[in-house]
Amino acid sequence: LLAAWRYGGPIASAIVAAKFHGGSIDPACWLGGLETGLAGRAEPGDVLVPIAPHIGRLRRRGHHVPDELARAIQDAWPNQQVPAIARATLWRVDDTAPRSAGRDAEPVFVAGGTCPAVWLIDDVVTTGRTLSAAREALARCQIDVRGALCLADAGSVNGGIVTDRMA
Q: Which of 68, 105, 118, 159 could bond to 49 as cystine, CB 3.0-4.6 Å?
């Protein structure tokens, strides 16, 4: 897991505003080196897969922070081999409450496609359940998950995921 920031302070306020209060976030302002950290680890042909949104929340918000983050990573990519974004690789099929409403929520994903290897993109890692469920869905389709990139890591509650913070 590459995370730009530890969750808290201004980054937490920006994410909460974007997710729950009708605000927007400019992920490019918060990249904190994610694009260069990934560039040193990605291989040619790797693709970015934003964590699929909960469809009801996407409709209410009108935007999805992981999609915006994936575009910002592409825009800031430091070399010629910019990774593609493969949104149609992962779909969320559950109707669970947001993690902030209950840490026991279990996301459910289905996957498909022919991507050889992917990097998952999410806004915040808290318990690690969302990333784990997404990785398991992709693994059932023989898609290799090389790692994940997140704007913020909530720290000790992330289920032991090893995090490199870029900023």
A: 118
